[in-house]
Structure formats: structure tokens, C-alpha cells
Amino acid sequence: MTDRSHLEANRANWDERVAGHLIGYDVAGFAADASRISTVVRDDLKLMAPHLPNGSMTGLSLVHLQCHIGTDTLSFARLGAQVTGVDFSGEAIAAAREVAERAGLDGRFVQSTVEEAPIAVDEQFDVVYTSIGALLDEGLVIEAFGEQDSLPWKMLPSMVEADPGGPFDGSWVLPVGRERVPMTFSIAARG
């Protein structure tokens, strides 16, 4: 397989995931609840806050690379950021625009690979964000590292829904008494 065919196969894979993720991520609930912040952003923001002016996203410009259907990107919009989401999946970008419209949120969504994003977007941002499924490139200095004990989806058969109103509300966790295993990691890095 060539690099181009790998890219196209990966893009087709993400295109196919959109319909299921619109349901699995409860996009209807996200759009209807103006206070809902995705669990991914809620977890990442705890780590990011010490590195943000006044510990807040308010008034900052943010580009979210590999934004998929935009729920995390739009969560940052709800926190006061001016957001741009970038993804190579045309299906995901179309869905992100629809989610923004349904939620009544402002957000720009651009179809592009990460490598082509500087040309496709042609802006500078206060915050460059990427999350689940992203890898760091060499040369970045890790400033903070955090582990989360919850996931926004049920990854393991033994996971249970977190208690409503608790610290992991809306997430999946391991049952009480189970040995602790970090579910995801958040990294703040600077180049």
C-alpha cells in the first residue's frame, strides 16, 4: 500500500464512523443542553488551565486538529473560545457543521489533513489542541501530564456508567474495588 492509499483507507474508516458516533456521543443531547461540555474537554481542561491566561478559554482562539464531529471543539466554544476544527474526513466536517448549527454555536470547520492545515486554515491561534488518538512529534516539551480514570465511551466490558452528578458524570469507569487503570492521558506540550 502506498502512503496515499493508506491515507484514503484511514479517511474511509473515519467517514464510516461518523453515523455511529453521532449516536454514541449523544449529539442530540449535546446540542440540546447548552451547559454540556464533553468529558474529554472537561478532563483535558483541568490539565490545560494552569497554562491558560486566567486559567480560562474565554476570548482565546483555538484550533482543534483531528476534531472529528466537533463535540470537543464546540465544548471549547461553550467555554468562551473562538474555535476552528480541522479534520481530513469530509463526512466528519459536514457532521461538525450540523452539530454547531443544531447547538446554536459558532465554529469554523475545515476539511484538511494535519500536514496541510497551516495552508488550509492560514491563521495563528492562541491554543492548538488535539486529543484522543493523537501522537506527539519529537521536539515538543511536555509541560504537564495527567491520567484520567474515566472514558466517554465503554471501552472494556467491565466498565459501568459513572454516578450521575459525581465527578465522572456522563462517563464510563471501572467498578468500585477494581484495581486502578488509567483510561486516557492528557498532555500539555509546547514546541
UniProtKB/TrEMBL annotation:
MF terms (GO), sorted A to Z: methyltransferase activity
GO biological process: methylation
Domain named Methyltransferase: residues: 66-131
Domain of life: Bacteria
Keywords from the named record: Methyltransferase, Transferase
UniProt-recorded name of the protein: Class I SAM-dependent methyltransferase
